[in-house]
Every structure is written in C-alpha cells, then in structure tokens.
Amino acid sequence: MKHPKIQALGITQEGSPTRWRATGYVQGFGWLEAWGTNLITALEALQALAAQRVAEAAEVVEDEERP
Q1: Domain count across the chain
Q2: Torsion angle defined by CA atoms of residues 54, 56, 62 and 66, in that order, rounded to the nearest 10 degrees
C-alpha cells in the first residue's frame, strides 16, 4: 500500500481544550478533516483517514483490473 502524502496540514483547537481539528490536502483525494481529543489524536485520525482512502482507491483499481 502506498503511503498518502499529506500537504498543507493544519491543526487547530476548537473551543474546548479537548477538541482538536486536523485538516490537510491529501494528494489525489483532496481536503480531509479529522477530529481528536488532543493534537496527537487529531493528527493520527487524519493520517488514518488518509490511509483508509488510499486503501479504498487501491481496491477499486484492483477490482477494475480483474477480468
């Protein structure tokens, strides 16, 4: 599986100290957004979401290549 390239990463605290939003542009997929209870979990959630999108796209390509 190819690792997603996240560009233009932004992490902001939204109101509460336990509400963090991570956004980033993922090459080939566009803007994604994820939330977490702290900076690290928000970033990890964004990375996991990007990896999930890459895996889903790889499945579609594999299905299209099957005879």
Answers
A1: 1
A2: -160
Domain that holds residue 31: 6-65
Provide the terminal-to-terminal Cα distance of the chain, rounded to the nearest Å. 22
Q: Is residue 55 part of a domain?
A: yes
pLDDT tens for 32-42 read 999 999 999 99
CA distances (Å), 32 to each of 13, 24, 43, 64, 65, in order?
Answer: 17, 6, 11, 25, 27
Residue 26 lies in a domain: yes
DSSP string, 13-66: E-SSTT-EEEEEEETTTEEEEEEESSHHHHHHHHHHHHHHHHHHHHHHHHHHH-
pTM: 0.83
